[in-house]
Amino acid sequence: MTTRILALEKDLFFAVKMRDTLKHHAVEVIIVRTLAAFEQRLMSAEDEKPRLVIVNIATVGVDWAAAIRAARAHTLPVLAFGSHMDLEARAKALEAGAQRVVANSKFTSDMVGLVRQMLSKPAGIASAEEEIDETQEKA
Questions:
Q1: Are the C-beta atoms of 56 and 8 separated by less than 8 Å?
Q2: How far apart are CA 128 and CA 82, in angstroms?
Q3: Which of 6, 25, 46, 137 can bridge 50 by disulfide, Cβ–Cβ 3.0-4.6 Å?
Q4: What is the predicted pLDDT for the residue at 129?
Q5: Which residues fall within 8 angstroms of residue 60, CB to CB, at 6 or more apart?
Q6: What pTM was estimated for this model as a whole?
Q7: SS3 content of the chain, % helix, strand, coil (to 5)
Q8: Where do the domains of the chain lie, and which CATH numbers do they carry?
């Protein structure tokens, strides 16, 4: 059985990498590039709804915080990733409701593990200990 996830990602090359990496693990990634498309996908029929949302918080020109809030309003877990240097975006993502925020390098190197971990937890549960990313581990 294939698990469906929704990703807000404007970078076409990275979107393809995400889709191709996860399809080998029975995960179908629906990629959207706008907030309107993201919100429309959240309203999909029950059998087409995603089980997880991934948001690139380095995306420019899209209100990714609104996307995170919309996903959380649908009780979907949210995995966000972005620059390890942008602590303001990280804090904003957590404030919007992301359960986990990781650095780009962590997301790229352990995409499958992170997705599996997020899918194994109940959708409404967030854990403060999961908020630690590579930036804080080095501090």
A1: yes
A2: 18
A3: 6
A4: 36
A5: 10
A6: 0.85
A7: 50, 20, 35
A8: 3-138 (3.40.50.2300)
d(CA 16, CA 99): 24
Helix axes 64-73, 35-42, angle to 10 degrees: 10
User: Quick check: helix, strand or coil at residue 56?
Assistant: strand
Burial class (CB in 10 A: 0-12, 13-18, 19+), 125: exposed
pLDDT tens track for 1-21? 689 999 999 999 999 999 999
Paired sense of beta strands 52-56 and 100-103, if any: unpaired
DSSP 46-109: GGG--SEEEEETT-SSS-HHHHHHHHHHTT--EEEEE-TT-HHHHHHHHHHT-SEEEEHHHHHH
Asked if 68 and 55 count as a contact pair (C-beta separation under 8 A), the reply is yes
More confident call, 57 vs 128: 57
Whole-number Å distance between alpha carbons of 3 and 110: 18
